[in-house]
Each structure stands twice: as structure tokens, then as C-alpha cells.
Amino acid sequence: MRTLVQVIRAHPTQDGAGVKIHRVAGQALNAILDPFLMIDEINSDNADDYIAGFPEHPHRGFETITYMKAGKMRHRDHMGNEGVIESGGVQWMTAGRGVLHSEIPEQESGLLHGFQIWLNLPSHQKMVDPDYKDIRPDAMGRAVSEGVADLSVVAGQLGVFGEVLDGPIRGRMTQPLIADLEIAPNRSVSLSTDLYDSVLVLVYRGQTSELSTKTLGVYGPGSELCLRSGEEGASALILAGKPIKEPIVQYGPFVMNTEQQIRDAIMDYRAGRLAG
User: What's the whole-model pTM score?
Assistant: First the structure.
């Protein structure tokens, strides 16, 4: 059985054009989150908190995964991709050598709730051609046990209720696992995965017996992860991956391995070559 070895609290901050979010990230957490770099949550029914969105900006050296729980977000990028991510949908973007994109709420009122996860790329893949995938809710691996829990798998493989679920994203070198688990009040769920040395659990609603809302739990080695919800139930993202264990140098939206590579990214962006 996996045991809890560390608890990290998400902290409030702002990004984009003043969008209010809660974030788990930072240089001190790089080794703990590896291969992930950052986990952001937007959750507000006040349009002032999100309406300005994330105007056009660059990325290089990693992948972004945007997962919407409620509301709508419009994506545009320099490759010509455009679409609206709605409840249950995922946008998986490989920035690689360079992407210019924007993410703007497709609504003027109501609840906007979603996550953006940054997934690092190993050094030999940081300059690959950019790519974009729009994943619909019905493509997820999903299992429901009435009155107990509802599990959706976006990437990787996870066992629950006696079956193994496969997410639509497979084949990445970092072998990412990304899943969304909703547990009914006062229930226990056992998840099976022995591929990873550690598993991250980010509780975003309610609480478990060990984690409160907006906390990330790091669970150590094992083949089973057991989570028990409290009186309000619990909702959590389940994350894991194969660590890259390489140097990380980050400057805003650029994540590379050396300072020189960061300088190159900045010069390429200023010269209009980053997304050329």
C-alpha cells in the first residue's frame, strides 16, 4: 500500500491577464513533481477573476494539458488550431521548439473551473515539432461505481473496481498518468498502479482522510493507493510519471536544460523565429 510522505499546499496567485488561480509549482518542487512542472487550478464564478484570460504568449520545451471541469475556454495557436474546450474536455499541446497560443474564456458569466498542467520534455525532445490534440470527454477511460466513485483517465493506465482503464494519451517517454477521481461521501477507493515510484494526489474539492482541499499529497512506492473521503466527499487529480532527472532552467514560458538554451529561446521569440 502506498503511504503519504509529503503534503504541499497550493498557493493563490495570478497569471495571464490577471487570472486568479491556485498553483503548485516552483524550483523547490521540481524534483518532487518530476516529470511535471506545474499544476494550476482556475475555479471561480466571478467573471472578474478570469474574463481577461491568457492572451497570445509563447512556449518552448514542454507540454501543456488543459482540462476543463466547467465553463468554456477558446484555444488559438499559430499552427491554425482553434477550438473550444468544454466540461470534461482536454487540450494536449506539445510546445516543443515553439508555440504561440492564446486561451480566452468563451463566456462572460458563470462558473469557470479547470486545470492546466505543465509536463516536461526530456532534453532530446525539447525541440520537436509542436503538436496539438483536442480530446473529447467520451474518449476518456471511465469507470463508475454508483454511490462510491467516478474515475476518468486522460493519460496512462489505472486500475479501479476490478478493471484497468486506459486513457487516450499513451506512448509518451515520461509515461504520464493523469486521472480525475470523484468519491462520494465517506467512501474508500483503491487504485492500482505499480509503474511509478510515487503518485501525486491533488484534492480540489472536499477532503480525504489525509488531505484537505487544495493540497497535494505525495504517495510513495507501492502497487495500491487507497483514498477515503470525508463527509463532503472528495474530488482529486491523480498524477504520476517517469522522472526525467535532468537539469531544469525556466524563464517564464520557456523550460530548457541550460541558461544558453533559455537565451536562445528569448532571442528566437524576439526575432519571430520561435514559432517559425
Answer: 0.96
